[in-house]
Amino acid sequence: MLGLCAATCAAISAPSFRTTFASTAVGSFSRARRAGGTVAAGHARARFLAGRLGISLRDSRMRAGLRQADVAERARLSQSFVSHLERGQGRDTSIETWAIVAAALGEQLAAFLEHVPGADPPRDVEHLRRQRLVIEVAARGAWQAHPEFTIDDATLRSRAIDVVLLRPVQREAIAVEVWDLLTDVGAAMRSLEGKVSTLARRLAPVGTGSAGWIVRGLWVVRGTQRNRTILADFRPVFEARFPARSSEWLRALTDPATAVPGRDGLCWTDAKATRLIAWRP
Q1: Following DSSP, what letter does each residue of 160-216 receive, concatenated?
Q2: Class of domain 125-278
Q3: The sheet that has 265-269: what strands, in order across it?
Q4: Cβ atoms of 69 and 79 closer than 8 Å
Q5: Helix (H) or strand (E) holding 218
Q6: With respect to CATH, is domain 12-104 assigned 3.40.50.360?
Q7: How far apart are CA 160 and CA 127, in angstroms?
Q8: Quick one: which H or E segment has residue 150?
Q9: CA-to-CA distance for 156 and 152, rounded, in angstroms?
Q10: To 10 degrees, the CA torsion angle through 187, 192, 193, 199?
């Protein structure tokens, strides 16, 4: 009986062992392949980013009118190493060294993690939601919407207005700039003024200047606690730059019979970008 049991167990266990071993081996091989693919993708991304950083370094240096030797001296590096970085070969360079090189140019190193392209929403989804909100609200006022409207002719990197709204019959136009996060407020205000002026020139018939079109600027700001605090702390600045009441702007956006206000304005959006809210009722 003992011999029979041993033989029976051997007959049963041997194939089972082989199957288990094979499954384990295949699983380990698959995990190794996945791990290898991850590492290879990481190496490829590092090479790409090193190339982008090298181009950015070279462009920043040339804008500043500096030589590689000048940057090297400020960063306490060799000129050949700066050249090495500019050629996109800084993949193994530490983050600290990149930050020092950026500081030598009066710049700062910026970094973030982002989702790999796929099923996830785009990184600028909050911005897109507010553009959509502006377009939907303005449709009630018979405005024609043109998102990401470029305003500079014959340039590789034209400035763009987030949404341009037009009522051709009334010859009215609005340059809408959407702000999810207020950072350099002064630069943003100057940018709006320049875009409004350029848009007026683009719309005007040749030889007539800007006559005939009324062009105004409108900020649409995401109503986060941080943005609200900034507007509260510097309210006199914002009131001077955006003197029109938000209630006037909301009527002009939603009522075809209401003319665009005579001065630039500012409105909030709620957190989910479902409605425009008056900043100065």
Answers
A1: EEEEEEEETTTTEEEEEEEESS--SHHHHHHHHHHHHHHHHHHHSPTTSTTTT-EEE
A2: alpha beta
A3: 144-150, 160-167, 172-179, 214-222, 265-269, 276-278
A4: yes
A5: strand 214-222
A6: no
A7: 14
A8: strand 144-150
A9: 9
A10: 140
Tell me 140's DSSP state: T
| 125-278 has the same fold as 12-104 | no
Largest CA distance in the chain: 111
Average pLDDT, the chain: 84
Which helix (DSSP H) or strand (DSSP E) does residue 38 occupy? helix 2-63
| Confidence (pLDDT) at 40 | 85
Q: Are 119 and 128 in contact (CB under 8 A)?
A: no
Predicted confidence (pLDDT) at residue 113 exceeds the cutoff of 90? no
By three-state DSSP, how is residue 267 classified?
strand
Report CA torsion sign: 68, 71, 72, 77: negative
The Cα–Cα gap between 243 and 280 comes to: 9
Sort residue 64 into left (φ over 0), alpha (ψ -120 to 50) or beta: alpha
pLDDT digits (tens, 9 = 90+) for 180-229: 999 899 999 999 999 999 999 888 864 445 458 999 999 999 999 999 99
The Cα 79–Cα 169 span in angstroms is: 61
Instruction: State phi, psi for 99 to the nearest 5 degrees.
Output: -65, -35
Does the global pTM surpass 0.85? no
- In this structure, are residues 248 and 135 in contact, taking their beta carbons and an 8 Å threshold? no
Structure tokens at 41: 């993708």
Alpha-carbon gap, residue 152 to 161, rounded angstroms: 11
What six digits make up the tokens of 185?
């407020």
Q: How confident is the model at residue 63 (pLDDT cuts 50, 70, 90)?
A: confident
The structural domains of the chain, with segments of one domain joined by +, span 12-104, 125-278
The 3-state DSSP class for residue 99 equals helix
